[in-house]
Design goal:
This is DUF4145 domain-containing protein. It comes from Pseudonocardia broussonetiae. This protein has one domain: Four Helix Bundle (Hemerythrin (Met), subunit A), CATH 1.20.120. Helix content is 76%, strand content 0%. It has seven helices and no strands. Helix 1 runs parallel beside helix 7, helix 4 crosses helix 5 and helix 5 runs antiparallel to helix 6. The longest helix is centred in the middle third of the chain and has 25 residues. It starts with a helix and ends with a helix.
Length: 142
């Protein structure tokens, strides 16, 4: 699936999901999706880094809003905490949570917190694919 189609799919899912479509943050989520699309026009490492950043922020906000709408309380307001809460609520299996912890959270943290770290286009594509999969799985189960 192309980046553009992947982002458009996430946008449609978010707009149709009961917890997200009613969220006060839906426009901000759409803004992140729009920012991801604009990154595709940037050449080189900066575009890939920004695409990882915006996709992560969209995923982070979507999971936060879903959890909040259910009145669940994660241990920590961060992507890893949201994944643990989704596992505790049987939305994700332990294997799925561990997978996304390794392929999304750990890799995202490296690029967001390590000076000079920039994903290659292949690495960025892998992270974006895993974030998309996580988003689709969670929204289909909650």
């Amino acid at each position: 699936m192309t980046y553009s189609k992947r982002i458009e799919t996430m946008r449609v899912i978010a707009g149709g999901h009961p917890s997200l479509s009613q969220s006060n943050k839906i426009q901000a989520i759409y803004g992140e999706f729009n920012s991801i699309k604009s990154c595709f026009r940037r050449k080189g490492a900066a575009g890939w880094l920004l695409s990882v950043l915006y996709t992560t922020r969209a995923l982070d906000t979507c999971l936060s809003e879903i959890i909040s709408s259910k009145h669940w309380t994660p241990k920590g307001a961060a992507l890893g905490g949201y994944l643990k809460e989704l596992e505790a609520r049987a939305v994700l299996t332990a294997v799925e949570r561990q997978l996304y912890q390794a392929t999304v959270v750990k890799k995202r943290n490296r690029y967001m917190h390590e000076a000079g770290a920039t994903p290659s286009n292949v690495e960025a594509d892998r992270i974006l694919t895993d974030m998309h999969a996580c988003f689709v799985i969670v929204t289909s189960r909650v």
